[in-house]
Write a sequence for this structure.
C-alpha cells in the first residue's frame, strides 16, 4: 500500500514536470517567463559544477543555520519557562496568535541602522520569524505530556534534570520536531527575504539581481535549489517525527 | 464572566508591556532607527488623513479580500475532496504538507514574471500562502469525523450531498474554522509580502517605500496600522474559534 502511494506521488510530480515542459516547449509559457524544466536542471548542474554561486550559497546557508540554532535554543527554553509561568503565558497568547500576520520584515531597516548592513540583521529577522513557531510547538508538546508519566517520574524521585531528560523531552519530542520543521522554513524565509530587500550577497541577493537582469538561467536554478534544499530537510525531519510518534505509540 | 475579565486584563498588560518596550528601545537607539509611540500615533493620524492613503489601503484590502475568498473556496473544495477520497488524500497530503514548509517567498520572481506587477500577482501570492492551511485543516476535519455520525448518515440513507450538508460539514466546522483563522493570517502576510516585493501600490508598497527612503515614521506607522488590523481580526477569530470548539 505504502509503496503504491509512493509510485502515485512520483507519477503526480512527473506529470506536473512533463506538463511544464510541454507548455514551455510549445510556447504557451514564453521563454522570458520560464525556461523548460530540463534546461533549469542543466543550468543548475552547470552552476553547481562551476562553483560561481558557492559563496552566495554558503553565506545564505550559514546565516540560516545560525538563525535556526538560535531559534531552537531560545524557543525551547522559553517554551519550557512559559509552560511553568501560567500567567505570563496567558498574557502572551494573543501575541503568539497574531504574530505571523505581522510582516516581521518591517523591522529589518531598524536592525540595519542598529547593527549595520551585515549578517546580524538578517539572522535576527530569521530568528524572530522562527522562534515563535518553536515556542508555540514546545508549549503544545509540553501540554500533551501524559500526567501519568509525570507522576511516575515523581514516584521514582527523578531530579528535575532527569525528569526533563527522560520523561518530558521524549514525550514532547514529536511536537518539538514539528516546531523545528516550521522554524527551518521560517529561517530560510527570513534570511532570503532580507537578502531580497537589502544586502551585499547571498542567494536572495543573487536571485533579485538575476531577476532585474532577465537572467533566467541563474534565477530559476537558484530558486529550485532553495526549494529542493527545504523539501529534503523537511522530508528528513518528517521521517524523524514519524519515528518518534511510532516509538511513543502515538501512531 | 470571570475569564472574560481576565482576558481583557491580559490584553491590557500585553499592550502596556509592548508600548513600554517600544518606548525603552526608542530611548536607547533614538530617532535614526525608531519613532516613539507618540510620534508614530501622530504620524499615523496624518497618514490616514492624507489623500493618497485611501487608494493604498483600498488596493491592499481588495487584493486581500479576493485572495482570501479564493483561498477559502479552493481550500474547502480540495480539502473535502481529499478528505473523502482516501486514495487521493493519502497520495497528495504529504506533498501538500511539504509545500506548506517551502519558503514561498523565493517564488515571488516567478509570480512576477507570470502575473506582472498588478493585483493578480498579489492575489496569487496571497492564495499561495493561505490555501494550504485551509486544505490541511479541512482534510483533517473531514477524516476525523466520528464514525458513528457517518454510520448514522448511512442508516438514514443520505445521499452524498446530504451527507456533506447535514453531517460532515457541521461536524467539521470547528476544525475548519481553525483552518480559516490560520489561512486568514497567512493570506494577509502573503498579499502584503507580494506588495512589498512586487507592486506599485498598497500598504506593503508604502512600507517598502519607507524602507527605501529610510522614512522611519512612515515604516513605523504602516507597520502599526497592519499590526492593529491583524491583531484585531485575529483576536475576534480566535474568540469565535474557542466558542466553536467548546460547543462540541
Amino acid at each position: 500500500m505504502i509503496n503504491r502511494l509512493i509510485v502515485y506521488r512520483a507519477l503526480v510530480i512527473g506529470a506536473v514536470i512533463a506538463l511544464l515542459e510541454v507548455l514551455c516547449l510549445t510556447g504557451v509559457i514564453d521563454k522570458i517567463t520560464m525556461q523548460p524544466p530540463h534546461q533549469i536542471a542543466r543550468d543548475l548542474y552547470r552552476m553547481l559544477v562551476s562553483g560561481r554561486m558557492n559563496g552566495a550559497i554558503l553565506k545564505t546557508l550559514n546565516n540560516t543555520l545560525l538563525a535556526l540554532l538560535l531559534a531552537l535554543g531560545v524557543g525551547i527554553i522559553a517554551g519550557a519557562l512559559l509552560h511553568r509561568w501560567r500567567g505570563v503565558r496567558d498574557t502572551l497568547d494573543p501575541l503568539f496568535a497574531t504574530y505571523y500576520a505581522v510582516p516581521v520584515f518591517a523591522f529589518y531597516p531598524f536592525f540595519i541602522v542598529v547593527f549595520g548592513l551585515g549578517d546580524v540583521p538578517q539572522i535576527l529577522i530569521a530568528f524572530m520569524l522562527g522562534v515563535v513557531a518553536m515556542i508555540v510547538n514546545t508549549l503544545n508538546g509540553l501540554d500533551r505530556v501524559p500526567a501519568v508519566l509525570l507522576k511516575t517520574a515523581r514516584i521514582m524521585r527523578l531530579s528535575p534534570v532527569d525528569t526533563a531528560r527522560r520523561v518530558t523531552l521524549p514525550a514532547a519530542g514529536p511536537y518539538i520536531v514539528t516546531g523545528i520543521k516550521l522554524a527551518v522554513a521560517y529561517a530560510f524565509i527570513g534570511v532570503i527575504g532580507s537578502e531580497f530587500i537589502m544586502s551585499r550577497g547571498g542567494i536572495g541577493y543573487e536571485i533579485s539581481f538575476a531577476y532585474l537582469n532577465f537572467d533566467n538561467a541563474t534565477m530559476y536554478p537558484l530558486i529550485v535549489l532553495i526549494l529542493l534544499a527545504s523539501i529534503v530537510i523537511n522530508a528528513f525531519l518528517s521521517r524523524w517525527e514519524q519515528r518518534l510518534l511510532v516509538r511513543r505509540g502515538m501512531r | 464572566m470571570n475569564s472574560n475579565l481576565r482576558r481583557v486584563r491580559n490584553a491590557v498588560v500585553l499592550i502596556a508591556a509592548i508600548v513600554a518596550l517600544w518606548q525603552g528601545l526608542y530611548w536607547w537607539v533614538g530617532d535614526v532607527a525608531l519613532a516613539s509611540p507618540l510620534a508614530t500615533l501622530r504620524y499615523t493620524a496624518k497618514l490616514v488623513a492624507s489623500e493618497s492613503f485611501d487608494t493604498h489601503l483600498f488596493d491592499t484590502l481588495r487584493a486581500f479580500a479576493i485572495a482570501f475568498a479564493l483561498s477559502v473556496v479552493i481550500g474547502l473544495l480540495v480539502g473535502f475532496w481529499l478528505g473523502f477520497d482516501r486514495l487521493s488524500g493519502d497520495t497528495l497530503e504529504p506533498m501538500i504538507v511539504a509545500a506548506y514548509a517551502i519558503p514561498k517567498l523565493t517564488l515571488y520572481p516567478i509570480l512576477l514574471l507570470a502575473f506582472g506587477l498588478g493585483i493578480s500577482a498579489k492575489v496569487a501570492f496571497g492564495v499561495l500562502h493561505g490555501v494550504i492551511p485551509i486544505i490541511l485543516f479541512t482534510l483533517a476535519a473531514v477524516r476525523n469525523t466520528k464514525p458513528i455520525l457517518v454510520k448514522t448518515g448511512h442508516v438514514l440513507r443520505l445521499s452524498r450531498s446530504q451527507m456533506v450538508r447535514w453531517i460532515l460539514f457541521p461536524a467539521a466546522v470547528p476544525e475548519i474554522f481553525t483552518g480559516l483563522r490560520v489561512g486568514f493570517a497567512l493570506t494577509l502576510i502573503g498579499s502584503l509580502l507580494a506588495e512589498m516585493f512586487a507592486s506599485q501600490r498598497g500598504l506593503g508598497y508604502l512600507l517598502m517605500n519607507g524602507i527605501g527612503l529610510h522614512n522611519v515614521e512612515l515604516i513605523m506607522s504602516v507597520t502599526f496600522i497592519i499590526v492593529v488590523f491583524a491583531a484585531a481580526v485575529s483576536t475576534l477569530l480566535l474568540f469565535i474559534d474557542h466558542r466553536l470548539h467548546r460547543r462540541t
Summary: Chain A touches chain B through 53 residues (CB under 8 Å). The first helix of chain A runs from residue 2 to 25. The mean pLDDT of chain A is 83.
